[in-house]
Amino acid sequence: FHIGEREEKCIIEDIPWDTLVVGNYKVQRWDIHKHDFHESAPGLGMFVTVTSPSGEVLLSKLYGPQGTFSFTSYLSGEHIICFQSNSTRFAVIAGSKLRIHLDIRVGEHFLDESAIQAKDKVNEVNVRLEHLIEQIHHVTREQDYEREREEKFRKTSEETNSNILWWAIVQTLILISVGIWQIKSLRDFFISKKLV
């Protein structure tokens, strides 16, 4: 994605609780003379801020022109990941565009292949089995989180349907009341004018 040099850009990630999130990014700066993006200047860095669904800041750190950040969620919900350059140029001169290449991996745990190759086959099977078990736990947490979201959505839908039903009943009662009042008023009018 592209951002201005002094602009902040935020991404919302829906993450289940107790999940590791790893992000890699690389920043490129727009070169006006060559009309292309090039590697950014050495002094340019990025502030990365991660906010939990409750509004608590989980991560706020300055990184270089490329870097890796990670955090573990402790609540289920929408986490906000924000990027802003550390450019100190005035807003009038800081018209340069930045391109950010971002790769976010949610719930990934990495196997160190070199460590696995260094051990014998039995240990390799154990390590791979532990990795599979860890992935199963992650999938279970993801499913639990999706069940929570479905339950909230279902509850909201049922409340809305209930409110719509009561609103329809109230409208019907008002319509009947106004109709009865109009009939009574017309009858009284006709009686007073001695038309009936």
UniProtKB/TrEMBL annotation:
It is a single-pass type I membrane protein. Residues 8-106 form the GOLD domain. Keywords: Endoplasmic reticulum, Membrane, Signal, Transmembrane, Transmembrane helix. The keyword rRNA-binding does not apply. This is TMD11 protein. It is found in: Endoplasmic reticulum membrane; Membrane. GO terms for cellular component: endoplasmic reticulum membrane. The chain crosses the membrane at residues 164-183. The keyword Metal-binding does not apply. Belongs to the EMP24/GP25L family. It holds the Pfam family EMP24_GP25L.
